[in-house]
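Supplementary Note 3. Input sequence used for the single-chain structure prediction.
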Amino acid sequence: MCGRFTLISPGEVLAEFFELVDTLDIKPRYNIAPTQPVGVIRQGRDTNARAFDLLYWGLIPSWAKDPAIGNRMINARAETAATKPSFRSAMKYRRCLIPTDGFYEWKAITGQKRKQPYFIRMKDESPFAFAGLWEHWQDPGGSEIDSCCILTTEPNELMADIHNRMPVILDPKNFAQWLDPEIQKADAVDSLLQAFPRSRMKAFPVNTTVNRPSNDTAACIEPLDADV
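The predicted structure, written as discrete structure tokens, is reproduced below.
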């Protein structure tokens, strides 16, 4: 699964990288956690312009009676999202990019109860994007929530040593295809939902500062000096 990540690149860098019309005015976030606001990039059907919006992390299906269901839907398996009732409509009509600079995963340590957190990012430390889905929910009283989730897939060789799943990371050349609202057949984007190449990624252990979602500082991504 993918349960924590960062977004620390300057707004102007993100705007250029993702070809946004407007420059972003955002603060660095080092420990984004489920149920928090998450930045996503969506494409308008009429203008094809890309917009950055903040959505609730934890997808709430449009048919849900209780929005709390979203707390359990921070991820969706890429292999089954097109057929699962909670995600299949979003796979057709509401795909998005979730910008990031890196994500965390916890590796089980043999013979110990604790798990060691790792930070995973691009080798060149550039921003990148998870493949995401979003949904619109409204209750009878008129309350509305736009929410999202991150697609996951089988791990590449780097991630396999840390965890048995990894987020789907999209190559920038495939952003337009993933966001295209005219593409509404799952098999048209299936080829994009693969493990990202290990050769372009790096991972290193970090201290347990990241374990608490309230810790949102650069200390979360500082490499751990000691061996693990």
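The first strand starts at residue 5 and ends at 7. DSSP finds four helices and 13 strands in the chain.
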